Amino acid sequence: MKRPVQVVLLVLSGLGLLQASLFTDMFLRYVKPGMRPLLIVSGVVLLTLGLAEAWSAYRTARRDEGHPPPRVAWLLFLPALSLLCYAPPALGSYTAAREAPRVAEPRDAGDEDFEPLPAASPVPITLGDFTRRVRLDRTRAIKERTVRMTGFVTPADEGDGWYLTRLMLNCCAADAQSVKVRVHGAVAPKADTWVMVTGTWHPGGTLGTNSAEVALDVSEVKKVQRPSNSYMDALPLD
Question: Any idea what the Cα angle at residue 35 is, between residues 33 and 38, rounded to 5°?
């Protein structure tokens, strides 16, 4: 690849990383917050290498005697340009509909692992905590309690209702896992719409066991703004 092409590619890649990680929160669409320092360092290194290569080419003014770059090499510009001009959106319902939901894991210590639910009503709760209480809490503390959760809408392929969903990352968007709560009693908003729902556990199976349906009879659905970090199973947004 000729030196001018190398310079442009390095500079664009560095600027793209810095644009996504230093000047905006765009990087949260693809990786966890803890990756930010590494992305900033990588962007600085790439930009520095590009500028150093440009300065070297200017000082030496030597012709590049290499072969012209293969056509496929130009595809390397696409990722860099996408970060600067049009970054791909965060994962959403398309991914969640094709991803098996995270399974509630048994607790070894027993029922005492569950903290008492707050006396306030509705109870703010995460989708993961709701799932665990429905299937693992033998005290059935969640029964008939009004809860409130936030997530995005994923259409259901079959049956009644739709899914309130969250996606979580271990490292990056490539290893995303979903947690879903089926919603009954309300018309599904548009896919990927972020909503806050209020309701009670939808009876199905035996509460406190794996046969219990992770579902909600909803009394209220309210549209909310997408959080800056959407890859967290966080408490409801105000």
Answer: 145
